[in-house]
Each structure stands twice: as C-alpha cells, then as structure tokens.
UniProtKB/TrEMBL annotation:
Belongs to the DNA photolyase family. GO terms for molecular function: deoxyribodipyrimidine photo-lyase activity. Keywords: Chromophore, FAD, Flavoprotein, Lyase. This is Deoxyribodipyrimidine photo-lyase. Its cofactor is FAD; (6R)-5,10-methylene-5,6,7,8-tetrahydrofolate. Residues 2-131 form the Photolyase/cryptochrome alpha/beta domain. It comes from Pseudoxanthomonas putridarboris. Its EC number is 4.1.99.3.
Amino acid sequence: MPCALVWFRHDLRLDDNPALRAALDGGFTPVPVHVHAPEEEGEWAPGGASRAWLHRSLTALDRDLRARGSRLVLRHGPTMPALQALLAETGAEAVFWNRKYEPATQPRDAAIKRQLRGQGVQAESSNGTLLFEPWELATQQGGPYEVFTPFWRSALLQWRAPVEWGAPARLPEMDEDIASLPVDALGLKPSPAWDAGFWDVWRPGEAGARDALEVFIDGALRGYRSERDRTDRTGTSHLSPHLHFGEIAPWRIAAGLERARTAANSADIDGYVRELGWREFGYHLLHHFPHTATQDLNPRFERFDWARPQPAMLEAWQRGRTGVPIVDAGLRELWATGYMHNRARMIVASYLTKHLRYHWLHGARWFWDTLVDADLASNTLGWQWTAGTGADAAPYFRVFNPVTQARKFDPDGRYIARWVPELAALPVPLRFAPWQQPDVLALAAPKYPRSPIVDLAAGRDAALAAYRKTGGD
C-alpha cells in the first residue's frame, strides 16, 4: 500500500479529520507528521501558554495514534525541507493537510502545495477548522462582511455542517524505521514551569475535548444565555483551547448540542452556536483584512492619541496589580490557569484601552503569550471590538466602568475573592472599590494598592477627549 504524509497542525484529532480521511479514502498508509516551525508564523509565533498546551496535545495525539497501530512523527522545520526529507524516507506519493488561515501561513502553505505538485506529488488541503471557509460568505455586493449580524444571518441560511466522521479503530502500520524526535526535543515546555497550575484545570487532547463537551452539555449549557457573563460561575463551555488546537471540530460540537436539544435548552443552544459564529466571523475578517492583526480596521484610529505606555503601569496591568479588583482578578486568573472568563476579558481590555489609553496591541500580545486559547482571529476581533477600532466594534465612547461591571457580573464578590484572596476578608460591597475605605483596606490587605493606578473618572474623561480629537461624536 502506498504511503501519504498527513501533516498535522491545528487539527490535533483523529475523528472528523478531513486530511486523515482523504489519505485513507485514497488507499494510502498515513504517515502522521507534525513539523515544528514557529519561525514561519511571522510575528505571531505561538506564545508560551500555547506552546505548553501543544506539548501535551502532541503527546496525546501520539498516544491515540499508537493505540490504533500508528504513531506521530515529529520533525523540526523549516517545513518544506522537513516534508521533502520525509517524502524521500518513506517514498510517500501524497501529502494531505487541513488549512490554516493566518496571514503568514496561507502564502506559505500555497507555496508548499505548488512546489509539491510541481514535483509530481499529490498535495491536497481541506477545511478541518471552520463551519464556513472565510471566502464562502459575501455581502450582496460581493464583498466581505464587517458587521456580525448580517454575516451570521447569511451563515445560518447556508449552513451545511459536515457529517461527523469517526476515525477507524485501527490504522495501517507504518515503517518502524521512520525516525521521529521526542516531543521534549521541540522545546515547548516552559522553564521554569510557570504553567504548572494549568493542568489542574485543563486536559489537552481529543479525549479532553470530548469530555469538556459532555461536561458542558450536562451542566453549564442549562442557563447558558443568562449565566455566561457571570464571572463567579462556571457558565461557559471551556472548549476554546480545544477548538483552537483542533482537538474537536466545531461541527461535532454543534451536532452534539443538537442531539441534546430540548424545549427547555433550545435558546441556550442557539446562544452558544451564535458564539461559534463569532469565531467564524473573526476568521472571515482576518482573511479579508489581514493587516488587522496589527493595525486598526477603522482608519480613523490611525491618528488616535494613544498614551505612551509606562512600563511600571503596563506591568501592573499584566500582573493584576492595578488596584481595581475585578481587573486584577481577571489577570491573575489568566496567569494561574492560562484562561480568563470572557466577561473579564472585556473588562480588562476596556481598562487597558480606555482608562490607561494604551494601544490594544499591548494587551493582545500579552494575551497571545499567556492564553492557552490564543487564537489570532479571535484575539484580534476581541481586542479591536473592545477598543472600538475594528469591525462591528463597541463605540469608543462606551467605556466599561469596572466597578459597575463587577457588581453586575460578580455580585457576591466571589470571583474577586478567589483570584485576589487578600481582599476576601473585606465586606462584599467593599471588594468592588476598596479604595473608598482606605483604612479598612490597609488593615485587611496591607500589600494591595491603596488606589487604582489611574483614577477611573480621570481615565474615562481623557479617553473621551482623545476620541473627540479623531472626529468622534
């Protein structure tokens, strides 16, 4: 039986894997391979938290392959020479992979496909990541969408989710002489191991993704629409890192939810599927406006008066030492777990871009390095939405008041008490704005900042003044 390379990237699963299926359907013995080439990701090479997750996800994928009689071959990049070497070693006649959509990887992959085909090697790519490829939906004028609601309306009208596909119980055996690096040789694990706390929360790999979906359906799905913004409750799916690394397909999630649909949870399911739609929208925007990974989509903000970051203040934000408890709680959750509740993400992003008036890229890059679900499309969409500079964005003059947000979405102060434990002894009303009673704060939490690093009212006024200079109303 002839061989084919199956090039794994952000599709680290066996079920619902179009590239693996194409190889098997073509009558090939799959040679699963992952090429580590972060230098080919441009300025958005994977951050520390992503690399830590990838180490464990690759280990899980290799284990799943071995359970089926195969294994994962690991190589260092550059990618094309690594694939060429494997083609020579295995005599493979084809290479199959699932597409990536980032600005740096799309042209790289296209060049690889052209070169392979020019050599007479069958080279095929598939969609293993999205419900809709970024170019499949267009406005009536034929252009890209820049507003979510009409985008999603069009998507729902054209919804044709793939049929779920289960990988076979056994895979054809590979030649044992094909060499592979150990996963440790890729240098993915952080040193020192600042990620140690992550793995009390997360289980990377396809089995972990399946379990997370089941837990969500059995638990947080009930009341999802009303509870998802509560930072003090487990009201979200926690599927985002599994989606980012392709450990589960979005259509398998949608299908699982559909099987669980009842009259009681129907609205919650629709609400969650809509969130999958926002993920699709982010990829749509990044494909059509690749510059937005580093630049504002709204050209008005090219002349916006962003403040010059002060290193001490930026570090205080990063480390959860701003003196604003809900902001600090979110950033400490991020550091401890590699994750931050979605509502908290909006609050901390608003604080950085509005109250501190720092360019959103400073926050986007911190998230990129510390989030286990750091996804370029979603990260860019989220930061530009909050900053007011992107597609379908919140108006710049919408400045989240973090105290009001905390009272609404953490009404008992439990999220704050968990992640800023020095404030747990304070009465609940004081946890939201402890600077209002400095004597009580000094007694209960002598090491916590006595006041926010920027006055909330002054920061908001400065942001609005800067916005008016750009021509905003």
